[in-house]
Design a protein that fits this description.
This protein is mainly alpha-helical. The protein is built from 1 helix and no strands. The chain starts with about 30 loop residues before the first helix and ends with a helix. It is a single-pass membrane protein. It is found in: Mitochondrion inner membrane. Keywords: Electron transport, Membrane, Mitochondrion, Mitochondrion inner membrane, Respiratory chain, Transmembrane, Transmembrane helix, Transport, Ubiquinone. Complex I is composed of 45 different subunits. Interacts with CARD15, but not with CARD4. Interacts with STAT3, but not with STAT1, STAT2 and STAT5A. Interacts with OLFM4. This is NADH dehydrogenase [ubiquinone] 1 alpha subcomplex subunit 13.
C-alpha cells in the first residue's frame, strides 16, 4: 500500500523537557516610583490650576463689583429722574381732572 515503512513515534532521546507550570510574573513597564512621581506632578499641576482659577474668579468678582459701584450714582439719578417725570405726569393729570 504505502512505500514508506511504519514508524512508531517515540519520545526524543533523553526524554521530554521539563513542564513549566509555575506562575511567570509579567515584566513591569513602569515602576512604582515612576507612577508615584507622575501622580505627584499631576496633583501639583491640578492644585496650581485650581488656585489660579480661584484668583481669576476673585479678580473678576472685584472688577464686577467695582463697575457696579461706579454706575450706582448714575442708576439712582436715572431712577429719580423717571420718578420725577411720573410725578409731573400725575400732577398734570390731577390738575386736568380737577378743572
Amino acid at each position: 500500500m504505502s512505500s514508506t515503512p511504519y514508524k512508531q513515534e517515540l519520545p526524543p532521546p533523553g526524554g521530554f523537557g521539563r513542564v513549566h507550570y509555575e506562575r511567570v510574573p509579567h515584566k513591569s513597564m513602569i515602576s512604582g516610583k515612576t507612577i508615584a512621581l507622575a501622580m505627584g506632578i499631576s496633583y501639583t499641576i491640578g492644585f496650581l490650576a485650581v488656585k489660579q482659577a480661584a484668583k481669576d474668579r476673585i479678580r473678576d468678582q472685584r472688577e464686577t463689583k467695582s463697575a457696579q459701584n461706579a454706575l450706582q450714582p448714575f442708576l439712582l439719578a436715572e431712577r429719580d429722574r423717571t420718578l420725577l417725570k411720573q410725578m409731573r405726569k400725575n400732577r398734570d393729570y390731577e390738575a386736568e381732572l380737577m378743572k
